[in-house]
Amino acid sequence: MSKRVPNPKCASCGSRHKSVFCSLNSEQLIELDEEKSCDIYSKGEAIFKEGSYPRGLFCVNKGKVKLSRTGAEGKEQILRFAKAGDVMGYNSMLSNKPLAATATALEDASICFIPAKEFFSLLKDDPRFSLNMLELTAKNWHTASRLLTDMAQKSSKQRLAEMLLWLKETFGLDEDDCIDVKLSREEIASMVGTATEAVIRLLSDLKKKGLIHLDGKKIQLVDIHGLATLAELND
Amino acid sequence: MSKRVPNPKCASCGSRHKSVFCSLNSEQLIELDEEKSCDIYSKGEAIFKEGSYPRGLFCVNKGKVKLSRTGAEGKEQILRFAKAGDVMGYNSMLSNKPLAATATALEDASICFIPAKEFFSLLKDDPRFSLNMLELTAKNWHTASRLLTDMAQKSSKQRLAEMLLWLKETFGLDEDDCIDVKLSREEIASMVGTATEAVIRLLSDLKKKGLIHLDGKKIQLVDIHGLATLAELND
DNA sequence: CGCGCGATTGATTCGGCTCAATAACTGTGG
DNA sequence: CCACAGTTATTGAGCCGAATCAATCGCGCG
Q: How do beta strands B212-215 and B218-221 pair?
């Protein structure tokens, strides 16, 4: 399945400056290059699975990844996404708990792997890296607390509108204002926390109201402000 | 409202060894004692409010605190609780975002306040403290991801059973196997993410099934294993 | 002892889930 | 390049959990 490939160099990684590794010096980057490895995962392939213990940190070099959790009846719940420059698996290593989520490639992706030893050595020796990681985990909490509140209090229509805006923030829009990621209706449903059929009906509803346009998996955001209003207020 | 009181000493704080401060040496503890302050908040009083920026870290010395967030229509959603030894407000400081939650004393509480400067100085100079904080924020994520999945997928009855077990884990049981915290039905509802009336009906349901006993605000857990089964499986 | 908020119960409504049937689409091999 | 098989998307009907609204009860507190 996954295929080992030559390491891309951290120093020339376009995403480094937006990542937790932004503060590393060239010496640290060279060490990282020596210790890490890199694999290609094809679309749909699992990078790691919830419940297991990771031996290191995963960092997305290229591609899009969904992080999801399997609920009581085997139903998937998407927790977040990762794209180039994002790291995964750190929560599990830091808390010494099994991985809370499964990571799956949404498209062919190249993922670097940094052994735990190297990760902890950075944490111990570089306070700036520690602070970056703390900032990252703290932001996660901020996002999670909002999601939790929304999930508990908002209607599925509001949540869908919100998720569309979230996808826009995460992946951006292409030249046609379409959300730049391909997700199945089922995957959207497991973000919103509802049934696939409901997503289809709600999307078609939003289209009818002129807030979005649909063309297969492509979702064009027509009225972003309208979506935001819908997500906040009721109906 | 809140009343400044003489600082309790960190070194003699019964909760220190279970807290993020467990690794501090006596010198660091003395410095902490000098920098911090301590206030008494009475039941129902707000310790801090979501949306504002904290000037430091809050640490519960005595008492129980709920951390909640106000949703779109002013409805409260309880995110977590804090008790002696727990710290609050760090996510906001670390991510430089406004506080995501409001902290309210559930009973008269004594809360220490550690100025941001001192907090960041500890983070910078003591890698063990950084690691403790990282472990804490990472565990938060683990909990939040489970809550999120449950909120999205489980029935309100299952969530209620789960919350009762969660309260047991957090606050423990008294000599009568009653959950050792007093919450209104409304507060329970804003944990579970449902309406007050629903909580009442569901609690009475659990009582009928012999899983719990009720006596006013006191909730006695009769069949913990049964509750756990209910929380996991369907109905 | 009475007031008022929190708790409880009942009736009704509605959103959203489930089940079922069809249609559109994707990739695969002939 | 087309036919086929297996998904994935869509639509419809019916049902159920849970929210809402309304009324009463009971307990704690002043």
A: antiparallel
Q: What is the CATH number of domain B154-230?
A: 1.10.10.10
Residue B202 confidence class, pLDDT cut points 50, 70, 90: very high
Nucleotide nearest to A187 (CA to C1'): D8
CATH for A3-149? 2.60.120.10
Taking the Cβ of residue A97 and every Cβ of chain B, the question of whether any pair is shorter than 8 Å is answered with yes
Question: Could you give the percent of chain A with pLDDT greater than 90?
Answer: 93
| For residue B234, pLDDT beyond 70 | no
> Beta partners for B65?
B82, B105
CB pair distance less than 8 Å for B91 and A138: yes
Query: What pLDDT score does A234 carry?
Result: 55
